[in-house]
Amino acid sequence: MEATAPTADETALVAALQARNEAAFVALVGEHGAAMRRFALTFVRSPGVADEVVQEAWIGVLQGIERFESRSSLKTWLFRIVANKAKTRAAKEARSLPFSALEADGGDGVAVSADRFQGPGSTHPGGWISFPEPWHQLPEQKLLSEETRAVIDTEIARLPDVQRLVITLRDVEGWPADEICNVLELSETNQRVLLHRARSRVRAALERYFAEE
Amino acid sequence: MGAQITCQQLVELVTDYLDGALTPSDRERFERHLTTCPGCTTYVEQIRETVRLTGERLTEETLPDEMRETLLVQFRDWATAE
After folding, report:
1. Does the distance separating the beta carbons of B75 and A34 come in below 8 Å?
2. Is residue A200 within 8 Å of residue A132, measured between CB atoms?
3. Rounded to the nearest 10 degrees, what angle do helices A146-158 and A188-211 cross at?
4. B7 contacts in chain A (CB < 8 Å)
5. Do the Cβ atoms of A10 and A74 come closer than 8 Å?
6. Can you give the residue ranges of every domain in chain A?
7. Which pLDDT score is estimated for B32?
8. Interface predicted TM-score (ipTM)
9. CATH code: domain of residue B59
10. Does residue B65 lie in a domain region?
């Protein structure tokens, strides 16, 4: 887990915050505030709770900024604070949330169900029984429709917590892998395994949906 | 060289492949498999499409005003405290 060093701009921003400069705070909220809120929401799922987590996190940021050491980037540090507050909160709320934050892993851990492939005694063991249907003949309108979007949302919401976090950060928010590893304190390999499971499940959900018509 | 990979093995290597995390020999076997397998070629396209469509979900680019206000109040309390 390599920590990314802060940029010169970040160093100046941190110094301004330490001097209690309001414009610096407004700039920081402007840059990361919305993404921090979405990040909190990925953890705790309820918008009201996410807002409380974000507020707690910002208090943590202000309390901690004096002691901020440039060993990690400011962004990594900010999101780690949100992650810690959210984890504490999710653990507390686990029993009362409609979707438990501690749900089981789910699924058999393979990208594609084993029954799609030929068995050991066949002519091509491990080969497709029938090929997946290409999607490129589907109209873009269909691919980008509200229904398709809902299929993806639903499947992501059903993923185990860390898979949901990783796919949201990588594929929705567009974070680079190393930032996710730093913030969630995952190894690169682990991050990739989680992303793999998550993407595989979303693909399978889309395949089922596109095959319906 | 090593043995050829099967379709069932290939689908488990796609994320490593797309992240450039396969060893050179595994990458070579992966790509060689794709050149002769329409099913796996479609599968890899579907994963790329899944990533693209998932990326379309990003919305809400700004913080609600009341949240911004609350945070500013928090900041002012902190900034004026001893």
Report:
1. no
2. no
3. 140
4. 117, 126-128
5. yes
6. 8-93, 114-211
7. 97
8. 0.89
9. 1.10.10
10. yes
Q: How far apart (Å, rounded) are the C-alpha atoms in residues A36 and A31? A: 10
Looking at domain A8-93, its CATH architecture is Orthogonal Bundle (1.10)
Q: Do A171 and B79 touch (CB under 8 A)?
A: no
Q: Can you name the CATH fold of A114-211? A: Arc Repressor Mutant, subunit A (1.10.10)
Cβ A144–B53 below 8 Å, yes or no?
Answer: yes
Quick check: is B62 in a domain?
Answer: yes
CA B45 to chain CA centroid, Å, is 14
Q: Summarize the confidence of residues B22-51 as an average pLDDT.
A: 97
Q: Which residue in chain B is spatially nearest to A50 when comparing CA positions?
A: B67
Q: What's the domain count of chain B?
A: 1
CA A26 to chain centroid: 25
Percent residues over pLDDT 70 in chain A: 89
Residue A113 CA to residue B70 CA, distance in Å, equals 48
- pLDDT tens track for A108-145: 579 999 999 999 989 999 999 999 999 999 999 999 99
| A204 has a pLDDT exceeding 90 | yes
A/B interface, count of CB pairs below 8 Å: 132
Domain that holds residue B63: 7-80
Dist. CA A209–CA B26, nearest whole Å: 32
B1 in a structural domain:
no
Chain A residues with CB-CB distance to B12 below 8 A: 110-111, 196
The beta-carbon neighbor of A196 closest among B15, B38, B71 is B15
Q: Do A111 and B67 touch (CB under 8 A)?
A: no
Tell me how close the Cα of A87 comes to any Cα of chain B, in angstroms.
Answer: 21
The pTM is what?
Answer: 0.86
pLDDT of residue A78: 94
Lowest mean pLDDT among A52-56, A158-162, A194-198, B2-6: B2-6
